[in-house]
Amino acid sequence: MGGVTKIVMNRTFSEIPVYLSRKSIPPACEWAPHVVGLLPTYVTGYGGNATWMYMQDGRQFIAGMHTNRAFRQVAGYYGIDLASMRAHYAQATQRSQWVPLVLRARQLVLFAFKARIPALKGDVATGYIATTAVDRYVADVRPGDQRCGEWTRITLASGHEIVAPTPLRRFQDHLHTAAYFYMYLQLRKLI
User: Fold this and answer.
1) Could you list the residue range(s) of the whole structural domain that residue 151 is in?
2) Where are the beta strands (DSSP E) in the chain?
């Protein structure tokens, strides 16, 4: 996990359910309606990327799938066309990267941000957090870190804490752009 994702509230990694084989991962219908965070992570002894999933009620688990796959499963559960979402986002913001996922049924937006520093080229670095799940966030400067000088410490409404290698201003920009995009879609009656 490389220190990027940390659990507070006196919980240890061994207390979090880990489902590394595809057959053991709970079906999306069991977790997609409750998810508020999808973060890429490494699991020692597992030869691949995994996703640390945070639920609205504070539960969490790790699934042996890429974060992008988990993101697509959430979109699929809600019947969201990601190509259409990307097109609307580009029209609204003049941007084509870091596209958030608007979940109208839950009145929230999963927005993208840099959640970790990849160990290998091609590894996913993007994580997603629901705008409504963020309780507070502050700069977390790590002197001497050559990979990323300024980090952001994010506290979720559930009390969990995430430390991401994203400068505070960039994190704020992603959060505010996601909120704007939600309003943009509402005003145009697209959601």
Assistant:
1) 5-187
2) 5-6, 18-19, 35-42, 49-55, 60-63, 101-103, 108-114, 126-130, 134-141, 150-156, 161-164
